[in-house]
Structures are given as C-alpha cells and as structure tokens.
Automatic annotation (TrEMBL):
Protein's organism: Streptomyces cavernicola
Protein origin, superkingdom: Bacteria
Signal peptide region: 1-37
Protein name: Secreted protein/lipoprotein
Annotated stretches, region: Disordered: 36-65
Length: 200
C-alpha cells in the first residue's frame, strides 16, 4: 500500500475531505467514461455465441455389426489365400471363418488346383460392402457384395514353372456375393458365389 506524502498528512481534515471528494468525483467520471465506451462497442455475450456442435453419430444403427461382418469376410480371405498358395487348406484357420458348406466349396477349388498342379501367386483385390444385416432373426444373417479385382492375381503352373494367363473373356473385375450367419457370437461365411460374368 502506498503511503500518502508527508505534506498531505499535515493538512487539516477538512482539506483532506475536500480532496477526497474531488478524487471520488474524478473516479466516477472515469468509470462513467469506460462504461460509455463499452456500450459503444459491446463485446459479444456468451449467450449470443454459437453453440458447440454435438459429436456426429453414425446414421446407420448397424454400422458396428456391418464392420464385424466385413472383418470376418476379410479374415476368411486371408486364410483362403494361404491355402491357394499351396493348394491345400492344411495349416490354415479357414474352418474358423467358413461353415462346412462354404468350406466344401473351397475344398473343391483346392482339389482341382492340386490335380492341375497349380497354385496362386500375387494377390486378390476386394471392394466389399455389407448390404444386408439382420440381427433380429433367430439366426442372425448378413449378405456381402464384393467387387473382386484380379489385376494382381496369378495362376502358376508348378510343372511348367509358368504363369497361366487369364481367359480372354474373363473380366479382371467382377462381382461376388457372400452369405453369412452369426454363430456363437461371431460371423461365419456360409456360402460364397462368384459372378465372373458380371463386371464391376
């Protein structure tokens, strides 16, 4: 706290009261001037500010379930490609993602490859989408529509040591569908159908 000058402390009380009155009046004018300036250029109040946007929520109530369906489909293809590279499902986890019916379809392909002495090199592209998901039924089911890309797919002849080119009438991109059911809490492919004649 600043101490008043010695000469002020020696002034009569009346003089000090007069000085105090003048100082208070000056202070009031200063405050009034600040208030006027504030009114002339008011700052936006908190009530006039725009409300913060609420976090956007997915419009699809089945988004999480569709994600799980696609994850099972992707996992199945990882294991299936392992089997195609050696023309055998042994040592893979294919049966974890495909039911007996779907597994039988893949086993037929693998048996034919083994008979022909072919294996698969390269990779297979996918643009899969879960188009139908029904979790209210007694047996939850789903359907996936996929656009399969063969541009990096290679059928290798183990006898001639050569790549077998695709048939001339085979589109490099074609549609395929997969049917799934949820068993014991996880999705499994029950049927896979390639539509080699349908381009995408």
């Amino acid at each position: 706290m600043t101490t008043a000058p010695f000469t002020d402390r020696l002034r009569p009380a009346r003089t000090r009261r007069t000085v105090a009155t003048i100082l208070l009046a000056a202070l009031a004018l200063t405050v009034s001037g600040c208030a006027d300036a504030t009114d002339a250029d008011p700052k936006p109040s908190s009530s006039s500010s725009k409300p913060e946007p609420k976090p956007t929520q997915s419009k699809d109530p089945q988004a999480a379930e569709k994600k799980a369906v696609l994850a099972a489909y992707d996992a199945m293809w990882v294991e299936l490609m392992k089997s195609y590279r050696v023309a055998s499902a042994k040592g893979t986890k294919l049966e974890r993602y495909a039911t007996l019916h779907a597994l039988g379809q893949f086993e037929l392909d693998l048996a034919q490859m083994k008979k022909n002495g072919t294996v698969i090199k390269g990779s297979l592209g996918h643009e899969a989408e879960a188009t139908q998901v029904d979790t209210t039924a007694k047996q939850p089911s789903a359907v996936i529509e996929d656009c399969v890309d063969l541009s990096k797919w290679q059928t290798y002849d183990t006898k001639t040591k050569k790549i077998i080119p695709l048939p001339s009438n085979q589109p490099t991109r074609y549609k395929a569908t997969a049917e799934l059911e949820r068993w014991d809490g996880h999705w499994m492919i029950t049927k896979y159908t390639p539509h080699g004649e349908r381009k995408c």
